[in-house]
Design brief:
This protein has 80 residues and is mainly alpha-helical. Helix content is 52%, strand content 0%. The chain contains 4 helices and no strands. It starts with 7 loop residues before the first helix and ends with a helix.
Length: 80
């Protein structure tokens, strides 16, 4: 069993997004702040596959959850 923790870069790659730090920062700045009543997986900027992956990660309590939660927190903060 692989117990290696996933990184934010790996999550972005899994979602089919550019996974370098500059691209991640740009993505977060572009899509922040995400309204409190919107679930991360229901945000309008995801395609259906990305939304399904995020929803599934939470529902199954997968090893992606810590990074999904990190991304959720990042997107809730107003851009700086």
């Amino acid at each position: 069993m692989d117990t290696t923790a996933h990184t934010l870069e790996q999550l972005f790659a899994q979602l089919g997004l550019a996974d370098d730090s500059e691209s991640i920062e740009r993505f977060v700045a572009q899509h922040s702040p995400l309204a409190g009543e919107v679930l991360l997986c229901d945000a309008p900027f995801w395609n259906p596959s990305q939304s399904t992956f995020l929803r599934s990660a939470w529902k199954s309590d997968s090893d992606w959850v810590p990074m999904v939660d990190t991304l959720d927190t990042m997107l809730r903060k107003p851009p700086q």
